[in-house]
Fold Methyltransferase type 11 domain-containing protein.
Amino acid sequence: MADLFIKQSKQYAVGRPGYPEKLFQFIASKTASHDLAWDVGTGSGQAVRSLAGIFKNVVATDTSQEQLECAPKLPNVRYEHTPPVLSIPEIEQKLAPKSSVDLVTIAQALHWFDLPSFYQQMKWVLKKPNGVIAAWCYTLPRVNNSVDTVFDRFYANDVEPYWDPARKLVDNKYKTIDFPFEPVSGEDNTGPFEFATERLMDLDDLFTYIRSWSAYQTAKEKGVELLKDDVMGAFKQAWNADGGDGQKAVIYPINLRIGRVGN
């Protein structure tokens, strides 16, 4: 996973969307206490700032040191560069003791994990029975009919061959991802629950977002430039179709799976 993002860490930090406060308010309302949160696969810390405003302490981990260097520095956040595989003794020594974490979050990363091993570790570290695990992904950005048509065609025809198979879990909005946890208080299932985040972007911002994809990096390593002149031209024509070539409101649909560890 880390290798897919090393070379575009700066593009990832700049190009990726943040997450809405409604998402964090919903998640926080399902946790019994707000002492310690662990953001796994934090990347460049897109979720950290909001978590740090709710939880007394946050530990944020990633396998990419390059991405961690782009994350926001906050007084109650501790970043840890971790290997791809962590043992439970290593978790206890470096991150948190058994049954001590109120919330584990995984933003746009769960599909990369070895899920059986990861879930075993999360059930060990989360407080019993109401420690919460929340994982979300966002799907393709939506702008308007003209841009969305070009984007969807580009995604299906040009980009698809270069995605890791795990990307299908995102395309399916995490509906099919294994998630063996109990519903949180007030809910009768673990989701996915729908949210959205909105960001003002110009066309260059959209291209930066595309360049932050793992598929873009994979294609580049195979000698393929996905953002060819004709592709960029088609995007530009669609972007300007409504008479405006500046910033537009871009919406990223978010799908959340949330559950509690139980006994």
User: Anything to note?
Assistant: The radius of gyration is 19 Å.
